[in-house]
Amino acid sequence: TTPAPRSTHRLPGSVAAMRDPTKSLLLGVGAAAGVAALGVAGYVYLFGSSTTTGADAGVLQMQAPPAEERRAPPAADKQARPAAAGKAASPAAGETARPAGEKAAPAAASKAAPMTTAAKPAPPPACSDMDANLALLSGAERKLVQGLIHAGQSQLFDSWPPAGEADDRKRQMVAQLAQLDGSYPGGLRSYIDNARRLLKESKEGVNPFDGYTPHVPPGVTLDFGSDEHMELEQQGVSEAAHAAFVLVAGGLGERLGYSGIKVALPVECATDTCFLQLYCQFILALQARSGAKRPLPFAIMTSDDTHARTEALLKQHANFGMADGQVTLLKQEKVACLIDNDATLAVEEDDPFKLQTKPHGHGDVHALLHSSGLAKKWKSAGCKWVCFFQDTNALVFRALIATLGVSAARGFDMNSLAVPRKAKEAIGAISLLKHTDGSSMVINVEYNQLDPLLRATIDKNGDVNDETGFSAFPGNINQLVLKLDSYVDQLERTGGVISEFVNPKYKDASKTTFKKATRLECMMQDYPKALPQGSAVGYTTVKQVWATYSPVKNSPADARAKAADGNPTHSATTGELDVYKCNSLMLQDLAGARVPPPLPAEYNGLSVERYPAVVLSPSFATVLADVKVWG
């Protein structure tokens, strides 16, 4: 078979950093003849389809046990992949949604009532020749600056020297202001008004759930590998022929001790398949299995930090087999930072001509799908579903396909893939909230809000575990399936605007100034807040978390701290080992293979169970029934 491209990245905390590739021996075996007899400890099982013949093929790789401590990765491996030479990607690197020169797509903003908050009085600018400075600008730029001064933001221009000094820097600053103004619905004036309202509510301790009572939401709970799970997977495969997929990938791996984009990291070291490659492989496998009459659309939300490097990764690997135009990149813009309750815009401490900015949150994905026209385009092309998933959860498709089947069977407008959640666990909870006015919504409620809400309404004990050992409120993991018809209608009504929140860290009890600049944020899972009453919103949970959710987002040090507190570590170590565990148990429980039991091990201070390093490629095992057929 033709080998797949291998990632060159090594992450501290991954099994890849433990292996000595010189101690491996390759033995050819036929997958069809050998699956049921597999079971030698320390072996790596690689299953796939021949890229030349299409026949099933297998490779049995005998691997020496890893050393007790992982090797530090070479310095070069920690560097990000080279950025693309140009701003625009080549066609092979994915279709860019915003052509050169086109106005930036708007970021999501709060769907707020008309503002009544009065702007603070604007002190006169300190510059004695502000009129001369304004003469340096175009008419539209002068109007923007004057509007900001009237909105109480004259501090931005107080330090401007007289005309003739630093004029280029002034123009650069106004250009940045114009970009921020154009990328937010309603412009900077609307952003400032929304910020003042939300900051006022934060200072006053306004309860966003006042009048609501929480109830257990409607949903489906599955056992991994059960008949019901596999039946829903089969229905999900049929529906996948009419699905589009959206990856939220705006972050770098800095929390992991890695400077590159997270989707370029290897999922596991047996094949060195990176996350983006794995996702492309699953979508292509669903495209083939479902009999889709067209390439399944795949959109990736990027950021300033990740856009060029994502383009370069796709270009380097020819879109990982996807067709030209099948992949679309949507770049999220940032929003201005705020330094006090008056929503005073912040400039960089070392550069008075540059505003501080931060990401607005992954809720912007909805506005981008609207402003780019993609959602409407997909609907016109016959798509019925949009599936959203995050950047470093390699197991997502083991549950997402069944979730798609549940959405079709239940007619859900929105279906959240969820996980069992311990009471008071630090993860959002999906809840049915009923208001005293008779309205209701199914929405994510943060764990630190759910417990006091329960205590104040229906249960003085708050959030507690039931007879299953888990809370009745499942955990939200931001993997979503939306019905495209109602989604496009909602985007037309709202422009993709998602309700915002602000989370300032106050300097003192007066709650007037902040320890550091804050900004408005929005979250993709808050989409149901603006849905019409009567919309069908639910969840799908797979009981076995190790089979569906093991994201890579914490450094080894942070993972050790979480383990000490009894929480999931969500590190590169557990992310890789859970892939092996899931695949090993699929072979054992579904195909009847003899798989050795896991061995206790310790990596980077984490006590773990190490299963044989089994990798099942998406082309070989798109769904669980593909493995059971060998039993």
Describe this structure in words.
The chain is of the alpha/beta class and 631 residues long. Helix content is 28%, strand content 20%. Strands 4-9-8-7-15-19-16-23-6 form a nine-stranded mixed sheet, sandwiched between helices. It has a four-stranded mixed sheet with strand order 1-3-2-26. A hairpin with a 6-residue loop joins β2 and β3. α6 (227-240) crosses α11. The longest helix has 20 residues, at 572-591. It is globular and about 85 Å long. Residues 1-118 have low confidence and may be disordered.
Topology at a glance:
Elements: E1 24-29, H1 31-34, E2 43-49, E3 56-63, E4 95-96, H2 130-134, H3 139-150, H4 167-182, H5 187-204, E5 212-215, E6 219-222, H6 227-240, E7 243-248, H7 275-290, E8 298-302, H8 307-316, E9 327-331, E10 334-336, E11 338-340, E12 347-348, E13 351-355, E14 357-359, H9 364-371, H10 374-380, E15 385-390, H11 397-410, E16 414-419, E17 429-435, E18 440-445, H12 447-457, E19 475-483, H13 484-494, E20 500-502, E21 513-518, E22 520-522, E23 537-542, H14 556-564, H15 572-591, E24 599-603, E25 606-610, E26 613-616, H16 625-628
Parallel strand pairs: 2-26, 4-9, 6-23, 7-8, 7-15, 8-9, 16-23
Antiparallel strand pairs: 1-3, 2-3, 5-17, 10-14, 11-21, 12-13, 15-19, 16-19, 17-18, 20-22, 24-25
Helix pairs in contact: 6-7, 6-11, 10-13
